[in-house]
Every structure is written in C-alpha cells, then in structure tokens.
Design a protein that fits this description.
The complex is a heterodimer of chains A (107) and B (119). With 107 residues, chain A is mainly β. Chain A is 0% helix and 48% strand. In chain A, the strands form two sheets. In chain A, strands 2-10-9-4-5-6 form a six-stranded mixed β-sheet, with no helix packed on it. Chain A has a four-stranded antiparallel β-sheet with strand order 1-3-8-7, with no helix packed on it. In chain A, a hairpin with a 3-residue loop joins strand 5 and strand 6. Chain B is mostly beta strands. The chains are: A mainly beta (107), B mainly beta (119).
C-alpha cells in the first residue's frame, strides 16, 4: 500500500498568515493527490483534486502543487473559517490512502 | 440536492456483525463510484472500500479484506457495507462517500454512522 505522510501534524497560525502543508507519498503517484478540509463534527470537504485543480465553490486562497511524491497545500491568507483539519489522499492505487492529517489552530 | 444518508450503526460485541446502509438522492447513483471511509474517535480518515458503478469491481483496505463486504443496489439507490468478525479497532464513524464524475476524488460525503465494538 502507498503510505502518505503529512507534515506538520499541527500548526498554530494567525488570521492573514500564509500556511503551507506538505504531503509525501511512499511511491510515485503522478498527480493523483487530493486535499480535504474537515471541521469539528462535520464530514470532510474536497478542496483540491489532481494535485492542483480547485474544486467548485472553494475560495481561491487555497492552492495545491506538486507531482510524483511531493505535494503542497497552500492557504495564501488564513481566514477565521479555515481553522480545521486538512488531509491529503492519493487516488493512484487502491487502497486510496489518506495522510495522517494536519490540524490548523489559532495562534 | 445531493444527499447521502447513512444508517445501521450501533453497539456490537467483538466478533459480531452489522450492516450499514447509505440512501442516496439528488443524483444518478448508478453512474458513480462509491466508497466507505471511516474515522476512529479523535483520529484521522481511513479509506475502507470502494465499488464500481455496476458493482463488478470492489476494492478493500487490507485490514478488512475477508471481513467486510461492500455492495450496492442501483434500483434502490443504496450503498451497503456488511461488517463481519468485528474487532475493537473497527470502532469508528463510517462515512458513505461519492467519487466525482470525472475526478478521482471524493466530492460528496454523508454525515456518518457510528459503529462501536465492545470487547
């Protein structure tokens, strides 16, 4: 199975900060990499698919990049509603494994 | 409105069985890959299984192979997960999820149904 490693596991940031989360795959997955946001008590929400494509309705402050094994999710200017957990997922090969998650907290 | 509504969760003893259901509405169910994803209390997301539109292809995570069975009934717009030989580590919130039409990503999630396995 492909292992997905996210870092950091948590971070503290302020409104307006630029935030970067990384995700590394244990083997190459081309651009089959997705990012989700999950708020407490809610189901996840798709932000980015195919490494860099913004899902409809997602604010443009979210962006994704990378290919092969190394990927990045960037929030250009953190907003109060962005404090949540973020997960990467590879969809190259089943099982479509998730990263361990990154919790973004208020500084 | 697209909706995925799970049911069937509950408290079960180790070694027991449950059947989870997901009733969908608001889209053409038979044209989408579907999946189950779980989340243990306070933990991250864990992909469990998925199923092709006509039910011919099914894939599972290693730890549930031979114990869980994913199935669907397109006439009833319903997705199922049969959980057998349950273990304490299967305790989780189980989400029903839809893969997007032209994207290899989950674009719609239910609210989940909780499964608790007591040892």
């Amino acid at each position: 199975d492909i292992q997905m490693t996210q870092s950091p596991s948590s971070l503290s940031a302020s409104v307006g900060d630029r935030v970067t989360i990384t995700c590394r795959a244990s083997q190459t997955i081309s651009r089959y990499l997705n990012w989700y946001q999950q708020k407490p008590g809610k189901g996840p929400n798709l932000l980015i698919y195919a490494a860099s494509s913004l899902q409809r309705g997602v604010p443009s402050r979210f962006s994704g990049s990378g290919s092969g094994t190394d990927f990045t999710l960037t929030i250009s200017s953190l907003q109060p509603e962005d404090f949540a957990a973020y997960y990467c997922q590879q969809s190259s090969t089943t099982p479509h494994t998730f990263g361990g998650g990154t919790k973004v907290e208020i500084k | 409105e697209v909706q995925l509504v799970e049911s069937g969760g509950g408290l079960v003893q180790s070694g027991g069985s449950l059947r989870l259901s997901c009733a969908v509405s608001g889209f053409s169910f038979s044209t989408y890959w579907m999946s189950w994803v779980r989340q243990a209390p306070g933990k991250g997301l864990e992909w469990v299984a998925n199923i092709q539109q006509e039910g011919r292809e099914k894939y599972y995570m290693d730890s549930v192979k031979g114990r869980f069975i994913i199935s669907r009934d397109n006439a009833k717009n319903s997705l199922y997960l049969h959980l057998n030989s349950l273990r304490a580590e299967d305790t989780a919130l189980y989400y029903c999820a839809r893969y997007g039409s032209y994207i290899d990503a989950i674009d719609t999630w239910g609210q989940g149904t909780m499964v608790t396995v007591s040892s």
